[in-house]
Amino acid sequence: MANITKKVSWSSRGDESGAAGEETPLLNGSEQSRPLRQMSSGSTVFQIGRLSTVDLEEEITTEEDSARGRPKEIPHNEKLLSLKFESLDYDNIENQLFLEEERRMSFMAFRCLEISRWVICGLIGFLTGLIACFIDIAVEQLAGLKYKLIKENIVKFTEAGGLSISLLLWAALNSFCVMFGAIIVAFFEPIAAGSGIPQIKCFLNGVKIPRVVRLKTLVVKVVGVIFSVVGGLAVGKEGPMIHSGAVLAAGVSQGRSTSLKRDFKIFEYFRRDTEKRDFVSAGAAAGVSAAFGAPVGGVLFSLEEGASFWNQMLTWRIFFASMISTFTLNFFLSIYHNKPGDLSNPGLINFGRFESEAMEYNLYEIPLFIAMGAIGGGLGAFFNFLNYWLTIFRIRYVHRPCLQVMEAMLVAAVTATVAFVMIYFSTDCQPLGPDHTEEYPLQLFCADGEYNSMATTFFNTPERSVRSLFHNPTGTYNALTLGLFTLTYFFLACWTYGLAVSAGVFIPSLLIGAAWGRLCGILLASTTSTASLWTDPGKYALIGAAAQLGGIVRMTLSLTVIMVEATGNVTYGLPIMLVLMTAKIVGDYFQEGLYDLHIKLGSVPFLHWEAPATSHWLTAREVMSSPVTCLNRIEKVGTIVDTLSNTSTNHNGFPVVVQVSGDDEPAKLCGLILRSQLIVLLKHKVFVELARSRLTQRKLQLKDFRDAYPRFPPIQSIHVSQDERECMMDLTEFMNPTPYTVPQDTSLPRVFKLFRALGLRHLVVVDDDNRVVGLVTRKDLARYHVGKHGLEELHLAQT
Amino acid sequence: MANITKKVSWSSRGDESGAAGEETPLLNGSEQSRPLRQMSSGSTVFQIGRLSTVDLEEEITTEEDSARGRPKEIPHNEKLLSLKFESLDYDNIENQLFLEEERRMSFMAFRCLEISRWVICGLIGFLTGLIACFIDIAVEQLAGLKYKLIKENIVKFTEAGGLSISLLLWAALNSFCVMFGAIIVAFFEPIAAGSGIPQIKCFLNGVKIPRVVRLKTLVVKVVGVIFSVVGGLAVGKEGPMIHSGAVLAAGVSQGRSTSLKRDFKIFEYFRRDTEKRDFVSAGAAAGVSAAFGAPVGGVLFSLEEGASFWNQMLTWRIFFASMISTFTLNFFLSIYHNKPGDLSNPGLINFGRFESEAMEYNLYEIPLFIAMGAIGGGLGAFFNFLNYWLTIFRIRYVHRPCLQVMEAMLVAAVTATVAFVMIYFSTDCQPLGPDHTEEYPLQLFCADGEYNSMATTFFNTPERSVRSLFHNPTGTYNALTLGLFTLTYFFLACWTYGLAVSAGVFIPSLLIGAAWGRLCGILLASTTSTASLWTDPGKYALIGAAAQLGGIVRMTLSLTVIMVEATGNVTYGLPIMLVLMTAKIVGDYFQEGLYDLHIKLGSVPFLHWEAPATSHWLTAREVMSSPVTCLNRIEKVGTIVDTLSNTSTNHNGFPVVVQVSGDDEPAKLCGLILRSQLIVLLKHKVFVELARSRLTQRKLQLKDFRDAYPRFPPIQSIHVSQDERECMMDLTEFMNPTPYTVPQDTSLPRVFKLFRALGLRHLVVVDDDNRVVGLVTRKDLARYHVGKHGLEELHLAQT
Fold it and tell me: Which residues form a coiled coil (chains A, B) (predicted)?
């Protein structure tokens, strides 16, 4: 159901207007809806967006709108696969044009291409590092300003009474920041909401999420995350870095910006999905690398979450981008921190240095770590469960941008209030050390020379709170403080994730985990007589943080490396691994990971690593879509236009066939052509009759296709006259003459493996005589999944 | 040329007798050579081995021997691709039997399979850890014994004069140990020579190197490495761990030992190449993990060097195996070192802890690091260049086992002599510190309370020497000592690699690098006035070690992680990356990496990551082998036997076809069957006529194929009577009915991608009517490579 689904944070409205307006047209984007689409460009976009929502049906003015907007389909649930998402094509279209170009290229030209790939990766890393640096400095400055203001206010009113004014000030400041952050997200670019990690996962998986790698998205994302962090929400600035890196990569690698209408005429060779995907992996890795100072972790993240075919050279380039990214960030931050040239403190988040001697662990602690991992897995699953229902609720009832902004402001105000109340009633006073590490120690009702311990957790950016929990000496927090903090922050963070703000979930997860981890450490020390064994609760804070984060996002390999790189100490590699594994196993027992959950709620046709285990009894014959709309090698223009305009055609790719015998027999496969290619051909009027009459017409080149990539115009924008409809088009040169095919009896796992390993978009199913009998696309494979009752099939819907 | 090639350390003799005797028969293994093969089993194997060498032609006794042994082919060079190596098949044979089994399996059964995979990975990790532990303790004990003996002797004779007796003792002890190590390798299992890393790379790439994952290989490898390290050669014990882990994995995952003739009737499902490969990756990772205490590095090693299709679940299992491996090793070593339960010191090699504060680096040091990387790359290329010619020399002249043993003994004696002479003439005396870290300080002619500095580098196991170079305080070594040491050790290590002993090249490389790195540090400190900047030469030793190792083996990502994990400090991650990248780029300019060089010298059909850049003008039509020997779906037994026995058939896979029209037309493809399957069918006499007459004959099951895996008997061992020859065989049930196919016009890169991504062994080329026109196998793709003059084609030879 169009209107309900699209409010899931990122399959949101932009997706509709974007897909219809600028991307390849939707399959149901028939001619009738053209007026709407034309309207939706420019500034009226928001209104249209709102018009087509469920509970505003009375406002719907045109027939077309109601056809799109009315909830005539089944209500949204996660057992649904949207037909709205298109696929990316990671298989090169090796048509004659392409092969000719490749064959013309010398070995040196390939060398140059390879060098430009490295240069682009370097650029991606550099720019990602710069953006990370910008975010970091902006957040630090603004948050510093805010906390200083509030602290002065609190100090003023602590003596005089009337702390409620401080509370109001705090809540108002937070709400204001968050309001700004939410407005730009909800109204300008809804796809920029959340951490962006699910979107990038989908992109790397091969699903085209509209507008996800646009310049506008990047700007909204970066500005949005600054305001949500400064606004004191329970969010981190790390997740958005990954998205930012990916957008940068997609932009830089194309050598132009479609939004700014600037084409630098460089890197034209890379204007196709295959190459773009590789660079986006590098960008995502560079983002992780900048966020956590973890270049290796970044590479592993890209590979664990995205890649399928592992290519050594690609991996090295990704690594290079990651490296440059950390390097750039370090370098500029070292200048900012007045220690120019000191590169030893990488990353946006810095967990501080764990000293090896103090932090050794022993065999008998391993079971404890595993138990903590299990707790983390359980809590993570609970977090995801709550968030799942919250998201469903949001999809149903909080889908208007203004409602979204109001919800974000509410959360901001509540966060401030809860924090204030907790601090106010806390009696946990700690002496202010000589080298007081707290940036903003709040004295409140504590004695002179003491500070409120609860305030160190709440009255700070989450990054600093995590560091305090890891490193503050034993006794800094009492158990009650930590317990209350864990409880409240858990629900706040859960409520926050999924708001229409740009924000990540890494840091809140770490913070929750660090709090209960430290609590465990304190409890252990107090229950055992040999207290010296459990001296350092910071160790348990680290383990708890890993467990909680692992329980929520369910990454293992990359997360281990990220944690190890962020703590700067490999001693804890082994326990962290154990903990993450345990958290994953326990968590998976109850609920999927947070990102997977949101992908599922978005009804995205996401392909997992392998076909479902019990799917061997399915064959290509059952899986494929049929009948297939085929085109002849030499086809009438009118037929092509009609085929493309036909709303019932379900595919973006058309097998090209040659008739051999009678018309009754299905024709033999001789190629595959894409909608986007046909559009370009129509636009340039590459018609056989025309070519004959005007000999001067230049031959269509690969460049024409590259120039149109990736925003191919919809078929409706191309005018074909009645005369032209009678012309013929020769597709031989443009089609892919050697598409991958499978016989009808191929089992689903085999089809799946071929499809996934090669990143295909269309797989033609042929019979023994090489005649087309069907076409397998992403949705045909993605709809099978293992549910509670064995293999289940998801419904397909035009949501 | 059979006799010359086979002495390249690992395409050596075992390969010939092994392949012919026990593996699937060689393609040219016709019936005439059967007497020889039968002779070659048992104790006469050495003699046969020697008989079939070039310069012993006069000893050749039989016609068959001369046919195999005479140098009738072109002389060996690296522009040759051996047809002798078979491929592994990473594509599941989804025939009816398999599909029936899969369809019968419930979801729970798949769960159980998944759990057994985890259990197996755990077992692999555990056993690899145990073996690493055994090697470590054995080396430490034996080396301790040796050095104590020599030290006492030296002390005795320093005063009395007659140190030449000490020299003799040292050389004799070394030679004796090495002799033993070389004898078991050269005579019992030549495949166990060297580090084993190239072999494992090939295995994971899909090349079947005979005998490489046998139990006997493991035993020889483990015992061999102990003796070569104790024998004082310039070798490490780390490389062989990777091979050991892989062998263990191959054994454990099959639930039986063919060598010991024990079948535990477990894990039968995993008895095929696809599954075995996955476990071998895990084993290799566990080996790296145990060797360097680097679980993440292990995973990356497996992926960087081996995998092509990245599967998340597989990666996690590999990670699990690595983790368990380090864990086991740590645990047992902690007991051995009397600190039970202290798990903070992982790995066989321990670089010692780098303290973060003392070791910070600054921006202006980055160019220095890069320069050192370039030096490392250059030196590494020089090392590889020397070793390349040495290997060619060995292939030509040192191929008899007894010569190999003698060469190894010579190297051992020379190593001892050089070390002794260097120590003897060294005047670099250092005061013995209060906490003298040296295990065996040699006083020699130094004053009392002082020790000979040169002796700390030579008179020690290489691992300890590396650690000393990293951590000994400033001034421990003088520049001359380090310079001389680098020079001599460089040539010794180069001479040593490729000997018929089980040994790795990691540690010697690190040692050379650490020596010249430290030298750089000392020189820098002495040339600059602001000496305080370059206080710690240990830092430069680390960078030098990374540069040298990177220059020799050319790994980047995994090596970075391994170095970081082994040093226990991530601060140096960034410089190490930079250095490794530089070393790789500089090194690649001159010469390939050491492992790739040895793979090339072995004429192995190794598939790289991508097709050569300028290969777009080649299509499947040019690449494929044709005509193809096809079988009919219902074929006469006699035809099958003749086909399999025919020496001119070049393939192990046969397309199965059905005739549709006249006999003159090529028939339509309907499946693919492997030689190994046909062998099993013939062995069980699954003939149509027989089945009809004896109704009780049981149906052939998947189990029968699994029991025969992987050592299928040669066709000559199967007796088929004249009556049986007239029977028919129905292949329908056993063939793979949906082999992957490509049209004739598919470009080479496209064929390559399909082949590599899916790990195929046979790819059928069909025409428009689905008729078989050719077959592409590994050698067809591997023979194209980019040389100095663009695309070159390697020669194929039955070497």
Answer: none
